[in-house]
Amino acid sequence: MSEIGMLRQLCGRLPLANPKEGTMPKVLRCADVVGSCDFVARGDSEQEILSQAAEHARSVHNMNDITPDVVEKVRAAIRDEAA
Ligand SMILES: [Zn+2]
């Protein structure tokens, strides 16, 4: 968690008007993947969101196998967080 704070400080010098991959907060709505779920994962990177989504899928949707297929669906559903 504190690593993220450090990253934010490092990235703080960069102008936010450049919504490039990696620095833009991202959001994943589980509903976009499974259809009906209120879970929303937020993070500064795709990796961060994927790990949250994997944990959520396991505990809530009983998906013990996160297949590459599922990962692709999740990645496709990740959006830039609207400010
Ligand atoms: Zn869900």
Describe the protein in words.
- The protein has 83 residues and is α+β, with helices and mostly antiparallel strands.
- The chain has one domain (2-80).
- The chain is built from 4 helices and 3 strands, in the order αβαβααβ.
- The protein has helices spanning 2-11, 31-34, 46-61, 68-77, and strands at 26-29, 40-43, 79-80.
- The chain has a 3-stranded antiparallel β-sheet with strand order 2-1-3.
- The longest helix has 16 residues, at 46-61.
- The structure holds zinc ion.
- Zinc ion (ZN) is lined by residues 30, 34, 37, 39, 56, 60-61.
Topology:
Blueprint lengths: L1 H10 L14 E4 L1 H4 L5 E4 L2 H16 L6 H10 L1 E2 L3
Antiparallel strand pairs: 1-2, 1-3
Zinc ion (ZN) binds next to helix 3.
Structure summary:
This protein has about 80 residues and is of the alpha+beta class. It has helices at about 1-10, 30-35, 45-60, 70-75, and strands at about 25-30, 40-45, 80. It has one domain (about 1-80).
User: What hetero molecules are bound to the protein chains?
Assistant: zinc ion
Largest sheet: 3 strands, antiparallel
The low-pLDDT segments are none
State the assembly state of the protein chains. single chain
Strand percentage lies at 5-15%
Radius of gyration over C-alpha positions, nearest whole angstrom: 14 Å
How many structural domains?
1
Shape: elongated
Structural class: alpha+beta
Number of strand elements: 3
Mean pLDDT, as a whole number? Answer: 84
Distance between termini?
21 Å
Percent helix range? 40-55%
